[in-house]
Design goal:
- This protein has 13 helices and 15 strands.
- The protein is an alpha+beta fold.
- The strands form 2 sheets. The protein has an 11-stranded mixed β-sheet, sandwiched between helices.
- It is elongated.
- The N and C termini lie far apart (about 50 Å).
């Protein structure tokens, strides 16, 4: 491991210098998703980092070559008179990022995992108390080697089931897609669409690039007012992300209108050949006999197929409507580790007893 070195990035200014190599490395990894891009995570950090949350990005080099990045931050957690410091992924828990991982040049996953392990436990053990990694893909090679190393060293980490993301693998033609659906799903979609068309002039619009600002406002209003999103800082996050992205189609907003009034909206994140449904908004007062949200999902899938998109990702969540359309899915796991210090161990035990109580009372 002598030819590997780990450096800490603890400021936004220092991070900005890494923007180009960050995305270049991501594209060379097995973890290439929108939620790990520099643009998304930097925008998230600008939005959600506070005085109690400090950047703790680990960059791993082999010689002068960047081969691994752990996109983390350290949060100072206070419990009454006690406190502890936990490491978490940038992008969580606020704003619901998925597929978070330590991304690594292919073939270097084990070396990077061991380098980061040695750095955490030998170089900077006083900087952190807990490691809480949420929603890491089940096929993460970094997590495999990192958890193996924890076990080899005689330590203990809790691993729990994380989120499930339903996805739809899209064929080349929309007729092929609908032929794969159940007869009930096809019949309901066509019936609801027919009822909707009787309501008046129906229009499905997709907005990109410069059109997104106005469409974002329409979407927020449809959801229940811009204040709803402002309270969660999602509007600020998305505006920052849009300003940073060079790709015109990075955010896609689909709005469904009836007689020139918007009745449903989907906010998509678009990355390479995947369209991800990030947020949904519907006018619940509009014709309760039909599901306008489901109608818009179907229309968006048809448009995605015609545009050559290969994957429609519903992201995490077990809402029933997602499984009406999905034909595949991706699972994640959570890893929790505490150093042998009283307060973080008590925190971990508290969560363990909560889980145990649920099992007993079930």
């Amino acid at each position: 491991m002598n030819n590997y070195k780990v450096a800490v990035i603890d400021s936004l200014k220092g991070w900005e210098k890494l923007s180009k190599p960050w995305n270049e490395l991501l594209q060379k990894s097995n973890s290439n998703t929108i939620f790990l891009t520099y643009e998304w995570l930097f925008s998230w950090a600008e939005t959600f980092l506070t005085e109690n949350r400090k950047l703790f990005i680990l960059s791993v080099f082999q010689g002068d070559e960047l081969i691994g990045i752990a996109p983390w931050y350290i949060e100072h957690v206070s419990l009454s008179v006690f406190s502890f410091k936990k490491i978490e992924f940038l992008g969580t828990p606020d704003a619901g990022s998925d597929y978070l991982d330590v991304f690594v040049k292919k073939g270097k996953e084990k070396d990077v995992a061991h380098s980061i392990y040695d750095f955490l436990f030998k170089e900077v053990p006083s900087k952190w108390d807990c490691l809480m990694l949420h929603d890491v893909p089940c096929n993460s090679l970094f997590l495999l080697h990192f958890s193996d190393r924890i076990e080899e060293e005689g330590k203990y980490a809790e691993i729990h089931r994380g989120s499930f993301c339903p996805i739809t693998l899209l064929p080349g033609k929309d007729n092929d897609f609908f032929s794969r659906l159940s007869s009930n799903r096809r019949e309901q979609f066509n019936r609801h669409l027919k009822i909707l068309n009787k309501e008046g002039k129906i229009k499905h619009d997709s907005f990109y690039g410069k059109d997104n600002k106005k469409a974002l406002n329409e979407f927020f209003f449809l959801y229940g007012g811009k204040e709803t999103y402002s309270e969660k800082n999602l509007d600020f996050l998305l505006e920052k992300y849009l300003s940073r992205c060079e790709e015109k189609y990075s955010v896609q907003i689909d709005l469904l209108s009836c007689n020139d009034k918007y009745i449903a909206g989907l906010l998509h994140l678009r990355y390479q050949n995947t369209l991800s449904m990030y947020l949904m908004a519907v006018d619940k007062s509009f014709n309760p006999k039909i599901s306008i949200g489901n109608i818009l999902v179907g229309l968006c899938i048809i448009r995605a197929i015609n545009e050559g998109i290969s994957t429609y990702d519903f992201l995490k969540g077990n809402e029933h409507y997602k499984f009406h359309w999905a034909n595949d899915g991706r699972s994640s796991i959570n890893l929790f580790f505490c150093q042998r210090k009283l307060i973080p161990v008590l925190f971990l035990l508290k969560n363990f007893f909560k889980y145990t109580a649920k099992v007993i009372l079930r």
